[in-house]
Amino acid sequence: MSRVWNFSAGPAALPLAVLERAQREMLDWNGSGASVMEQSHRGKRFIAMAAQAEADLRELMGIPADYAVLFLQGGATQHFAQIPMNLAGAGDSADYVVSGHWSAKAASEAGSYVRVNVAASSEADGYLRLPPLDSWRLDPHAAYVHYTPNETIHGVEFHAIPDVGGTVPLVADLSSNILSEPLDVSRFGLIYAGAQKNIGPSGLVVLIIRRDLLQRAGRPMARIFRYAEHAAADSMLNTPNTWGWYVAGLTFQWLKAQGGLGTMAERNRLKAELLYQAIDGSGGYYRNPIEPSARSRMNVRFTLHDGALDAAFLQESEAAGLLALKGHKALGGMRASLYNAVPPEAVQALVAFMRDFAQRHG
Ligand code: PMP
Fold it and tell me: For L-glutamate, which residues are the binding ones (predicted)?
């Protein structure tokens, strides 16, 4: 077996222990004589597993009892639309903070269902820094405020939860940094995340919503789009992504065994620090363009001093067992994603490779 160090932005690396356990349980899950993918979500075994996954996530994140936890489908992108459908009524407006590709997309998709007020944007700065909090033009009558704590493509991250006042619910797309550190869930009205970075396989969305928001009328729509219906049916309104839910549950158990989110936060901080120090200490050979206070711990962008070396860097890094360092096509350059399942050894190997490459291609 040859496993590589995987820096993919998503779908991304999963913990080796999770993959090995899923492999062990593949043919005969939980003494059932069949795989988890081959049995009813209405069966006793699956329902018990699903409840345990939710309980483990609640424990890990400290999710208060007045929040519902939903295991849904559609990717984060579907919820760009479904959130305004559920939280905004006819004629309502919602505030969007635009700090990179994904928050811009969330705002543009929401526009079909709600009047979008771009309360702040760092687009004119090339998304190299975050829109300063004192520049946010928030509407006290907005249905909600939406922001994206970590921008996966642009590599910028909010390191504190913005204070948007007490009355308008804060909605956050945590797709690329959920579970990377402890989070005060009570500060949010709604949190959502596509699973394929820090949770498990793609095709699953974890959505955490304060229960009073389930009462919002939204607009007339089919039941399948309504979060209140999913909550009332324990996320089994229709057939859920059973495999995704199962692997997510294994990841939550793995996180608990690691020591929880405090341990992950410290590990993630050290990983990012090691890579940023290697970039900043390279004498300009490598560069990260992001304002230091806004740098992402999860997605580290860098360019080489000479773009003509990109192809060699990618080819040699792959040959050295370092996978998926190519940056997003919109930005070029490189990107290393350092999610929970990427161990410190992977970052050490990357940094050693970068030093070696710079010496050989000086
Ligand atoms: N939001 C963020 C922050 C993301 O990183 C991504 C995917 N990379 C998305 C939304 C879109 O997710 P999906 O493909 O699951 O719709």
Answer: 42
